[in-house]
Amino acid sequence: MKIFKIVTAFTAIVLAIVLLSFSQKKEEKRKEKSVQTSSETKVAYFASGCFWCVEAIFESVYGVEEAVSGYAGGHTKNPTYETIGTGSTGHAESVAVYYNPKKVSFQTLVTVFFGSHDPTTKNGQHPDYGSQYRSIAFYENQEEKEIIENTIIKLNKEVYDGRIVTEVMRMDTFYPAEEYHQNYERLHPENPYVRSVSIPRLHKFKRKFPKLLKKEEE
After folding, report:
1. What CATH number is attached to the domain comprising 137?
2. What is the pLDDT of residues 96-136, one digit of tens each?
3. How far is it, in rounded angstroms, from Cα 164 to Cα 172?
4. 87 within a domain of the structure (yes/no)
5. What is 33-99 written as a DSSP string?
6. Which residues form the Peptide methionine sulphoxide reductase MsrA domain (predicted)?
């Protein structure tokens, strides 16, 4: 009987280790989403409302090789779409923008960021509201921080009369979102939200910055 109990306990421990290993590998797979880029690629990070919309906007810009939807700016590990929706993780729906600096500058990406959403709306972009939809421009070094801050100063003076509420935050950890969120606007053009919000927002951006767009063949 004693031997049976020992074997049962051992089996339970092995099963727990296997399940933990499977869970960790699944999480690593989500984090290590493959992105096809060139050797010169750099990455910039932005949050400005629903990441379906933001991803599509940046992917339309010349010099951007890929944009990945995800979560950033929070204080907990391994956030999910469900947990960030509660507002308890501190994360915002964000996008990692993979770009070729020989084709498009960080300054231009910052211009795209501010030019494609309302940076004066706190915790939201119509019709989505909550801290997970707040406006954040992330930086990874002092040069990027100064570019963002100088752009805010300029826009506050010339356009927004000091009303910009965008957070300027050092990038800590970016968590790619679940696979079904990636390229959502392109893959689901029939979705009611995409039709009424995402696509109109993309078209508005394209009309505003036609010279920044990729050519049709790209």
Report:
1. 3.30.1060.10
2. 999 999 999 999 999 999 999 999 999 999 999 999 999 99
3. 23
4. yes
5. ------TT-EEEEEEES-HHHHHHHHHTBTTEEEEEEEEES-SSSS--HHHHTTT-S--EEEEEEEE
6. 44-193
Task: Give the pTM.
Answer: 0.83
Counting DSSP H helices and E strands in the chain, the numbers are 8, 8
Q: How confident is the model over 4-58, as pLDDT tens digits?
A: 444 454 444 444 443 344 344 444 444 444 566 566 899 999 999 999 999 999 9
Instruction: Tally the C-alpha atoms within 13 A of residue 102's C-alpha that lie toward its C-beta.
Output: 4
Q: How many CA atoms lie within 13 A of 52 on its CB side?
A: 22
When comparing pLDDT for 216 and 168, which is higher? 168
- Active-site residues, by number, are 50
129 occurs within a structural domain: yes
| Domain-located, residue 218 | no
Domain count, the chain: 1
Examine residue 161 and state whether it is found in any structural domain, yes or no.
Answer: yes
Amino acid at 154: K
CB contact at 8 A, 70 and 176: yes
Six token digits for residue 27: 């999480």
Tokens describing residue 2: 């004693």
Name the residue among 143, 115, 129 with its Cα closest to residue 54. 115
